[in-house]
Amino acid sequence: MGLLSNAIRGSEAVQKWGFIAMHSALAATFMFLLQRFVMNATQETSLLWALTFAVCAAGLAYKQANR
Question: What would you report as the CA-atom Rg of the chain, rounded to the nearest whole angstrom?
């Protein structure tokens, strides 16, 4: 029974980190496309904003996943 509960906890950890990664990737993609194609920013600026939003989104998703 202990082995099964460890497997369930491990699966929950994978789901939590997957949620964080997905949230971060979607935020970065959204911000890159917005900056690059809607606001006509340079590629470097778009990537910098995408990275910034990805880090912020990962932090928010981490806090939400640990509630």
Answer: 16
